[in-house]
Design goal:
This protein is mainly α and about 750 residues long. It has 28 helices and two strands. Strands 1-2 form a two-stranded antiparallel sheet. The protein starts with a helix and ends in a 33-residue tail after the last helix.
Length: about 750
């Protein structure tokens, strides 16, 4: 391209950059097409053909472009001509408007005279309106009387139509006066139409009486009820219209009769039946009251659902309103009843009624009420807090009842102790009484009754039952102690004291075995540690009283030990065996675990009493011969006692008489110099033996010098003993008497 062409193209490129871009794109597309067509040498032969075809195509495109541009130019020319014509017409209109404006300004003075004519016309129109309504105004009192007659005849729709006409006439007059600011005249109009107020009150009274009897009318005939609803809806429409206009609100509007309808219906539902002052707080009276409520509510809701729903518009939601009203009224009513001092039966009835009966198919879940009646969305009849509070009150009442019954059972139990016959026996011959059966049956019944309400109350009653059982065991133990004191004063009373103690042990075992069955959850029947401890204390106290009785019979015999007569072959231990055997026969009337325990404790008592007697410093062996006699006697007595207890069923490994055999070895030792080794073995086996015990045994030998005694005691001091776990102490229960001084000074001041 030459320089002139570039200079000529430059302004055009600057003015039409899109054209340059389009040209470049076209050249690029042509080049791409040519390279695709003529990429082989043999294709160049058709170059002339392609050139002629493209020339024809360009000519066709150029002719179409020229035609399009020509049509656009013709359109532009026509548009310009139309704009020129419109401008001329606008100018002509402006000229005409200016002429009209000047004409109006010239005739403005003539319009002032028409103002007076306009005022006269308005006044004439008003007077014409007044003339038209004068017959109605003059007949107002007559209409009032006729309307009152219609009301007395219960022709409510006709009466209400005339009442609406009277109100409409009055409201129109008052509205006109209000618009003209004639407030003083409104008082006169209201006075003239004062009869409307009486008619309104009479009609309203009849309407509310009908609404108040709606449940009865629903069964007998709903005509009056439907009429009342139609009148209420008419008044609601009038209220809505006046409130929407909001220019003038006549006196007594809005009446709000639909809202009053709901209030009257709710007052009818929450009538005298929900008054707590008329409710008997005792169980039977409260049960009758709740049963009557259940029957009436179901019956009335069926009337509402089947009959009254069809008598009112759907937007009244009368079934939902009645259901909610009954629910709320019952909630308040139950709260009022709970403010009374109810007995346990009353509290149980309320809990059962609120938590189970209310939602059951016998009441709100009645098949005739479902699915339209649904109280699940209204919340619980008693709040969780109130339920918990009521449950606690119920538990308190049950606790007082249980305490009274247990105290009475305890009194009857100990009254039977003083009978002239032994306690009852079961089929196996074991002594027993009705006490555990009565106590467990009473507790179990209360727990089972509580389970009818819910798990929470059952758990509360279960915890209370365990607490009361523990307290009862404490009182039973105190009664045993008191009875034991009275028996010690006169052992002939009660006559069968031992038998009743044994029966008490069997009773305690029965209670211990039955406690776990009280637990509501069969998978977790653990007895609390405190209750287990109370049962153990009760068992130990009964065993202690039995052992004290055995001790009283053994003490006269033990007081004769040791003595010269005893050494020479007395039948003292034989008598002791007879006493033990007598008590063992009594012990056989208790079940095996207690029987074994009594045998072990009796054997320990005998062994400790035998050892205590030996340590009373009553005798000292004077020679080796006496020591031999003492060893023989100890062997014979201990063997006889051991064989007795083995024959009674107590294994030798469970006996404490082995301590007497060990003590015999100390006395039989020939060489006192070896005592330190023998004593070391003795205290190793019986670590609760003290220096005083060993010293007393050494005194019993009669041949231990001070030096040997000192060596023995020194050895004991060097080898202090610790009681192993599970060790049954025997010597720690034996008190050693203080040795008497060889001489004493006379009373008086020292020189």
């Amino acid at each position: 391209m030459s320089a002139e062409d570039e200079r000529a193209a430059s302004p055009r490129d600057e003015e039409w950059p899109e054209a340059e871009k389009a040209e470049k794109l076209a050249r690029g597309a042509a080049l791409k097409w040519a390279s695709g067509v003529f990429y082989r040498p043999e294709k160049l032969e058709g170059l002339g053909h392609y050139r002629s075809r493209e020339t024809q195509r360009n000519s066709s495109i150029q002719s179409r472009l020229k035609s399009t541009v020509q049509s656009y130019l013709e359109g532009v020319s026509a548009g310009l001509e139309q704009l020129r014509s419109a401008a001329q017409e606008v100018q002509s209109v402006c000229q005409d408007l200016g002429a009209a404006r000047w004409a109006l300004l010239d005739s403005a003075d003539h319009f002032q005279g028409l103002q007076q004519m306009r005022a006269l016309v308005e006044k004439h129109v008003q007077l014409a309106s007044v003339v038209q309504v004068l017959p109605q105004i003059f007949s107002v009192q007559e209409v009032f009387s006729h309307t009152l007659q219609l009301l007395h005849g219960q022709r409510l729709l006709e009466a209400h139509a005339e009442l609406m006409m009277g109100e409409h006439l009055r409201d129109d007059i008052l509205s006109q006066l209000h618009l003209r600011g004639l407030s003083s005249a409104q008082t006169t109009v209201l006075s003239y139409f004062s009869g409307l107020q009486q008619l309104n009150e009479t009609l309203a009274k009849q309407l509310w009486d009908i609404v108040g009897s709606s449940l009865r009318l629903g069964r007998e005939g709903p005509v009056l009820f439907v009429t009342a609803v139609r009148i209420i809806e008419r008044e609601e429409k009038i209220d809505d219209t006046l409130l929407l206009e909001a220019t003038f609100l006549p006196p007594g509007r809005p009446k709000g009769w639909r809202q009053k309808f709901y209030h009257v219906l709710q007052d009818t539902i929450t009538g005298p039946r929900f008054c707590a002052a008329h409710v008997d707080a005792e169980g039977p009276g409260l049960a009758r009251h709740l049963a009557a409520l259940q029957k009436d509510i179901v019956s009335e809701l069926r009337v509402v659902k089947d009959l009254m729903v069809q008598c009112v518009p759907a937007h009244y939601n009368i079934l939902s309103v009645c259901t909610t009203t009954y629910h709320q009224a019952l909630t308040s009513h139950l709260q009022e009843i709970l403010r009374e001092d109810l007995d346990k039966q009353g509290l149980f009835l309320l809990l059962e009624w609120a938590l189970h009966v209310y939602h059951s198919p016998e009441m709100m879940g009645h098949p005739d009420l479902l699915p339209e009646v649904d109280v699940s969305a209204l919340g619980p009849l008693m709040s969780p807090e109130l339920v918990d509070q009521t449950e606690r009150r119920y538990v308190v009442k049950v606790k007082a009842s249980v305490l009274e019954w247990m105290q009475r059972t305890l009194e009857v139990e100990f009254k039977e102790w003083f009978r002239e016959e032994e306690p009852e026996t079961d089929h196996q011959g074991f002594f027993q009484s009705a006490l555990p059966v009565i106590v467990m049956q009473m507790l179990n019944e209360n727990i089972q009754v509580a389970s009818l309400i819910n798990d929470s109350l059952q758990q509360k009653v279960y915890n209370m039952a365990l607490e009361e059982l523990e307290a009862f065991l404490g009182r039973l133990r105190e009664a045993l102690v008191q009875c034991g004191k009275e028996h010690q004063q006169d052992r002939a009373v009660p006559k069968y004291y031992v038998s009743y103690l044994l029966a008490m042990l069997n009773n305690n075992l029965a209670l211990s075995n039955s406690v776990s069955s009280l637990h509501p959850n069969t998978a977790h029947r653990e007895v609390p540690a405190s209750l287990r401890a109370a049962l153990d204390r009760m068992q130990k106290k009964a065993c202690q009283l039995l052992l004290e009785e055995l001790l009283l019979d053994l003490q006269p015999l033990c007081l004769q030990l040791p003595s010269r007569k005893w050494l020479s072959g007395s039948q003292l231990v034989g008598s002791m065996c007879e006493v033990i055997d007598k008590y063992a026969k009594h012990f056989s009337r208790v079940r095996k675990p207690i029987f074994t325990l009594l045998l072990m404790e009796s054997e320990l008592l005998v062994a400790s009493q035998y050892l205590r007697a030996l340590m009373q410093r009553k005798m000292v062996c004077k020679s080796e011969e006496e020591r031999g006699q003492l060893c023989d006697r100890l062997l014979q007595d201990t063997t006889q006692l051991r064989e007795l207890f083995c024959g009674l069923g107590l294994d030798q490994s469970q006996q404490s008489l082995e301590a007497v055999f060990a003590l015999r070895e100390l006395i039989c030792l020939k060489d006192p110099a070896l005592l330190s080794l023998e004593v070391l073995g003795f205290i190793t086996k019986y670590p609760d033996a003290s220096d005083e015990h060993i010293s007393t045994l050494l005194d019993l030998r009669g041949d231990v010098s001070k030096e040997v005694r000192h060596v023995v005691l020194e050895m004991m001091a060097q080898h202090p003993q610790v009681l192993p776990e599970g060790y049954r102490p025997i010597f720690s229960t034996i008190l050693v008497p203080v040795p008497e001084l060889p001489f004493c000074l006379r009373k008086g001041k020292c020189a």
